[in-house]
Amino acid sequence: MLGKIALEECWTIPEELxxxxxxKFVASGTGSRLTNELLxxxxxxxxxxxxxxxxxxILSFVAPGCQGIPDKAKAEAQARLANDRIEAxxxxxxxxxxxxxxxxxxxxxxxxxELRRCGEDGNGMLYFDQPEYDVFWxxxxxxxxxxxxxxxxxxxxxxxxxxxxxxxxxFSALGYADRLNMHILGIVTNGVLDRFPKLKILxxxxxxxxxxxxxxxxxxLDRGRFxxxxxxxxxLVRDYFGEQLFITTSGHFSTSALMFxxxxxxxxxxxxxxxxxxxxxxxxxxxxDDHVWPNxxxxxxxxxxxxxxxxxxxxxxxxxxxxKPMTPRQxxxxx
Amino acid sequence: MLGKIALEECWTIPEELxxxxxxKFVASGTGSRLTNELLxxxxxxxxxxxxxxxxxxILSFVAPGCQGIPDKAKAEAQARLANDRIEAxxxxxxxxxxxxxxxxxxxxxxxxxELRRCGEDGNGMLYFDQPEYDVFWxxxxxxxxxxxxxxxxxxxxxxxxxxxxxxxxxFSALGYADRLNMHILGIVTNGVLDRFPKLKILxxxxxxxxxxxxxxxxxxLDRGRFxxxxxxxxxLVRDYFGEQLFITTSGHFSTSALMFxxxxxxxxxxxxxxxxxxxxxxxxxxxxDDHVWPNxxxxxxxxxxxxxxxxxxxxxxxxxxxxKPMTPRQxxxxx
Amino acid sequence: MLGKIALEECWTIPEELxxxxxxKFVASGTGSRLTNELLxxxxxxxxxxxxxxxxxxILSFVAPGCQGIPDKAKAEAQARLANDRIEAxxxxxxxxxxxxxxxxxxxxxxxxxELRRCGEDGNGMLYFDQPEYDVFWxxxxxxxxxxxxxxxxxxxxxxxxxxxxxxxxxFSALGYADRLNMHILGIVTNGVLDRFPKLKILxxxxxxxxxxxxxxxxxxLDRGRFxxxxxxxxxLVRDYFGEQLFITTSGHFSTSALMFxxxxxxxxxxxxxxxxxxxxxxxxxxxxDDHVWPNxxxxxxxxxxxxxxxxxxxxxxxxxxxxKPMTPRQxxxxx
Amino acid sequence: MLGKIALEECWTIPEELxxxxxxKFVASGTGSRLTNELLxxxxxxxxxxxxxxxxxxILSFVAPGCQGIPDKAKAEAQARLANDRIEAxxxxxxxxxxxxxxxxxxxxxxxxxELRRCGEDGNGMLYFDQPEYDVFWxxxxxxxxxxxxxxxxxxxxxxxxxxxxxxxxxFSALGYADRLNMHILGIVTNGVLDRFPKLKILxxxxxxxxxxxxxxxxxxLDRGRFxxxxxxxxxLVRDYFGEQLFITTSGHFSTSALMFxxxxxxxxxxxxxxxxxxxxxxxxxxxxDDHVWPNxxxxxxxxxxxxxxxxxxxxxxxxxxxxKPMTPRQxxxxx
Lengths: 335, 335, 335, 335
What we know:
The structure is a homotetramer.
Chain A: E1 4-11, H1 31-39, H2 44-51, E2 54-61, H3 72-92, E3 97-99, H4 108-118, H5 134-142, E4 146-149, H6 156-163, H7 175-189, H8 192-195, E5 200-203, H9 214-220, H10 237-240, E6 245-248, H11 255-265, E7 270-271, H12 281-292, H13 298-312, H14 328-331
Parallel strand pairs in A: 1-2, 2-3, 4-5, 5-6, 6-7
Helix pairs in contact in A: 3-4, 4-5
C-alpha cells in the first residue's frame, strides 16, 4: 500500500543516551545498531520509508525519556531540548515527518506549559489519572492534542516484587501491556475523558489487551461495590473507542488480532503503526501490504493504513505537513 | 445445550468465612447472598444446574482460600479440612459434582503431599514458577492432575503501589487477568511444562488476555537478550495450547472473543465454564445456549460445552463420576 | 436498537393477487396470513415497527410484480397503478415509509420513463445487463436512484431443467441466491457500473453468496480467456463494494456471516433489513438487538442499523421523510 | 508446512484430449501448457510437490471426463481405460499418489460396478440425487468410499438460457459453484445421506458458497410448503458437515473465508487442496505456508493441511500408501 502513515515511531538525541541506553533493552551486541537507528531521521529511516511505501512518520522521544530523569529541573530541560531538536529535524522534511512533544510530567502545570509551547500533540508516558493532573489534560484538550501512551519499563521496586524470576516478561512480551492497560483504564474510569471530552488517547500494540476483554471489563466494573468511581454512570468503556480512545497496530502484526479488533472497536478506531526501530520497517510493511490485504476490505484497509490518523490529528492536513486523504485506488500499488 | 460441564465454580466452608469474607468483594448489602451461594452445593446450586442444562460442576475452594492464611500450619490444616469436607459433598452426588483439591502452597512438598492424599486434580493459586516448586509440579504431573489457576486479589503492598486511586480495576475487571497472565507465562517460560510434559494448566476468563496477544508474546520473548530463559528453545508459547495449556469461558461471555480464541488456540483448547457464584448460572447458560449457537459449528460447540474436559481430565469418565462424551445430537435440546 | 431503518420490505395491492398469489410460496393454509400482511401498511405492520424499534421502512412491490405479467402493456399499467397506490400510502406517513418504484422492465425505455415519473429509487428485478438496457440504467443514475435487486422465482423452463426433483431448493433456500448472484455479477462484469459511475445497486440476504467468494470471483474472472469482457480492466469486483454495490441483512440473520461480511466488504457496504413479511419483524429485531450487539462495535452497529442507508439514498434525509443520522447513544435503548 | 496432502488434483490421458480439450478453458495460447500438466504425473508435478512440501496427491480424472461422452458404451470404456491407466501410474509411486476412480455415471448400476472393480473411492460429477441412483450410492457407502464432487461446464441449453451475454461467469468464477451447490443440496435434501449414513461427500472451493449461507439454507428449507422433502425431519443441513459432508480449500485461497468456514462448519470438516493444474502449486502452498499460518492455531492447521483426510479416507493409512498422521511439530518447517 502506498501512502502509509505510521505514528508510534521512536527517535532520540545523543544527550539522552547516558540517561537511557537503548542497548540495555536488546540482545548483547546489538545495542549500537538500535542506537544508530534511534538517532537517525533522514538517512536510513527515510530510505526504508521510501522503499516500503511509508509516506509519513510521527516521531516520539523514546521512552522513558524525560520521565526517566528523577530530577525535575533536569527532566524539564531535557524535554525542552528534545522538543527543540525534533522541531528542527521535522522542519527539514515536514511532508515526511511530524513529532509528538516530549513531556517531563513531573509537574503537571509545567508539562501543560511545555505542551502549549510546542503547540503540538503531547507525548504519552502519563501514568497519572488523578485530579492534580487535570491541568495537563485540560491543556491537551484545548490544543486538540492527542496523547500517545507509550509503555515504559517498571521501576526497580515493581520489577523486584513482580518480575524477579521471570524478567523477560517485564518488557514488550507482557509487562508493558499489563502496566499500560492499567493506566489507560485508570484514566478512563477516573473520568478524565468525561471532564475533557475533546481529549483523545492513542495507544499501540493492538490495544494493550483491552479490545479482547472489553466485554468482561465493562461487565465487571462494579459500580455497586465502587459507587464513587468517577466515570460517567451512563457510559461503558466500550463507548469511548472511536471517539476518545484509538489504538495502533505497532508491534503486533497479527492479522487475526486485527480482524478481531475491527469487529470489536471498529476500523475507524485503529491506525497502522510500526514501532520502529524496535520493529523492522520492512517486516511491518510486508505484513500490512501482503498479509493483511485482502483479508479486510479496501476501504477499512486504506483508512487504517492512512486516513484515520488525519481525522484523529487533523493538524496533519494543514501546513507544513499538508497530508491529504487518499482513496483505495490511489493507495493500491497494483496500478 | 444439554449436558454442559462447568469447571471454574466456587464453594466455601463456614470455617473460611472469618478468614475470607466474600462480602468484601461485592456491593454493600449483597454479601450474604454471595456467602449463601458459596456455602450451598446441593440446594439452589443444583436446582439452577437442572434448570439450565448444566450436567456437572467441578468445584474449587474459593480464592484466596488456604493461600490467604499467613500461618503455614493453619493453612495446611484448613486445606485438609476443606478437602475432606468437599469430598463428603461430592460423595452425595458424584454424578453431578467433582472438586479440585485446595492446596495451601506454603510448602511445596506439603502441597504435593496433600495433592497426593486427595488423589485428585490440584487447585490453582500457584504463583510459583521457581525450581523449588518442582516437587509440587512433579506430583501433579504424576497424578495426571490438571491444575486450575485462579486469580486472587493483590497483596497490600502491590495494591498500594499500583492500584491506589483506581481500586475498582484491581479485581475481576483487570487486575486478576494482569496478575494471572504473568504467573501463567512465568510457569511456561521458566520451563515447568517442559520439565513435566504431562502437566496440564487450566485457566479461565477466555485466557486472561493471552490468546489475543499470542503473536506478540512469542515475537517479543527475546532469547537474544535473555539467553538463560529456561523454556525449550525450539518451542513457542503458542505450541503449549491444546497440549498443556487450556482455557475456559468463565466470566467472559463474549461470542466474538470466543470465536477469536477458537481460531487462535483451537476449539480443543477451550472449555465452557461459568464462575459461579460470581457469575449467574442462567446468564452464562443463556449466552451459551442462545447466543453462541449457531455462530460456531455443532461439533466444536459440543466439545467446548462438554466433551473437551473429559479428555483433559479423563478421570471424570471413570467411577464414581462416570461422565461420557455426548454427540451434538444428544446435547441439542431442539429434539 | 432504536431508530432502525429496513429496506427490503414487501407490500402488494389487491389487483396483483390474481397475477401473483403469495399463497403459493408458503405452506398450505398460511397464504391468507401472508396476503394480509402484504396488503397492510399502516396497521399490523406499523404496530410491529413501533414495538420493535423500526423507525422507517422502504417498501418494494412484491416480486415478481409487474415483471411477472407477460403482456407488456398490462405490465406497464400495473406498474403505474402500483406506484400511484404506494405514493398515496407513503403520503399518509412519510416519516415512517418510503417506497422503491415498481418497474415493468419489458421495455427499457418505458421503464426508464416510469422511473423518472416516480422521481424515485427504482425497484429491481432487472435481469438485464445488456447494452439495450443502458437507457434504463442511465435514467437511474441521473436520478441518483439506487436499484434494489430482488430475487424472483425461476421461469418454467429453468425450473424444469434444473430444479425438478428438488423444487424446495428453487426458492429462498438456494435458487434465489444462485440466480441473483449471476445477474448482479452480469451487471458488474458487463460494465454497467463503469458506464454509470453514479449508479448504486443494492441486494439482500447478506450479499447472495458473493462476499464469501469474492477472492475466488476476482481470481477466476479470466481476462485472458475473455478479452472482451467489458468491465474496466483496472478494477476488481471487490472494488465496487461500498461505492456502487451494497448489501442488506434481509432474511440471513447470522451473526457470524455478518461479521465475515464486515471484514470482507466493509461495514459501510451493509444495511440492516428484514424481508417482511417473508420474515418476522420481531425475529429480525431480536437478532439485531440482542444477538448482534455487542459482537460488533457500536459505530458500525449504528451505521448498519440506520445511518448507512441515509448516505446511499440521501433523498431520505430531505422532506417529506426528513430522516437524520443518529449517534450510537441516541440509538441505544439501554439509556 | 511439511507433509501436506492435496485431493482435488486433476490429470488426464491422451485419449481424452479429443473429447475434452483443456485448451478451451484457458486463455488462447496457454492450452498446451495446461494439457502437458494434465498428462504429467511423475515429472513436473512431482518436482513441484517436492519443492512445496506436498507429500501426497489424490488424482481425479479431469471433468467432464467420461461424463462428457454422450455414448454410454464409449463412456464406460473410457472410464475403464482411465482407471486402469491411473492405477498403473499410482503403482509407480504409491507413497506419493492415489486416485479417485473415474465413473461414467450414465448407468448407475454400471457405475456402481466400476466403482467396485476399482475397489476405491469414487470420482464425482454425480448430478443425480434421484432414487434410481441409489444403487450407486449404496455401492459407494459399502466400499467406505468418499465421493468427490467436481463442478463441470453447463450444457449447451443451460449455457444459452442463463449465461449468454455473460459467458465468463459460467465457469470457475461463479457457474461451477452455483450448479454444484444445487446438486450437493439436492443430494442432501433428497435423503441420500440418510439412506446411506456411511456415505461421505467431498467438495472443493471452500464449500461452493454453502457454508456462508448455512443459516439461511436451514432457515428457509420450508417443510411446511414441501412436506414430502425426503431429508430427515429431525436434521438440519448443518448437521451433516463433519460427518458426511466435507470441503476443501481448492482454488479459494482466502484466509478470511477459511477462518469463517472453520467457525461455521468446524476445522475437522475442511481439507487443504490445490486444484492443480488449474491453480499453481507454489501459489497455493505459499498461501497455506505463509499466509494462513499463524492466523489459525497449529492443531487445526495441521489437521486441515494433512490429518483430516486420513480420517475421511482411512484407506490411505494402509498399504501401499501407508500415510500416517503427523504432529504440528513434525509438519513445521521452522525446525
